[in-house]
Amino acid sequence: MTVLIDPPNWPGPRGLMWSHLVSDSSLEELHEFAQRLGVPARAFDRDHYDVPETVHARAVALGAEAVSSRELLRRLVAAGLRRRKRR
After folding, report:
1. What's the pLDDT tens digit per position in 4-54?
2. DSSP for the chain?
3. Contact 8, 56 (CB under 8 A)
4. For the whole model, what pTM was predicted?
5. What confidence score (pLDDT) does residue 83 get?
6. Region 64-69 average pLDDT
7. 50 CB neighbour count, 10 Å cutoff
8. What does the alpha-carbon distance between residue 87 and residue 71 come to, in Å, rounded to a whole number?
9. d(CA 53, CA 76)
């Protein structure tokens, strides 16, 4: 059971770079971690939370594993937790 975070490589609101926060075991674990981190529920999008660069170091300090974006996606898919957008 691991919460993962990728580097803040994604441009977003407020001129900040953003990361994705996911779990490789369950959405319940992810929601619990996000709550401890102080991330609002509105930041959840299907299978991940979008978190600003200002949260990255604190997420790692709380136990999130810092991985590449490619590794994060690989592990999310392998866990069966990937939820793609509907077309």
Report:
1. 999 999 999 999 999 999 999 999 999 999 999 999 999 999 999 999 999
2. --EEE--S-EE-GGG-EEEEEEESS-HHHHHHHHHHHT--GGGEETTEEEEEHHHHHHHHHTTPEE--HHHHHHHHHHTT---PPP-
3. yes
4. 0.91
5. 87
6. 98
7. 17
8. 25
9. 21
Distance, in Å, from the CA atom of 1 to the CA atom of 55, rounded to the nearest integer, reads 21
CA distance 59 to 7: 11
Identity of the residue numbered 85: K
Cα–Cα distance for residue pair 75/87, rounded to 1 Å:
24
Question: How much is the pLDDT for 1?
Answer: 65
Residue 55 has phi, psi (to 5 degrees) of -100, -15
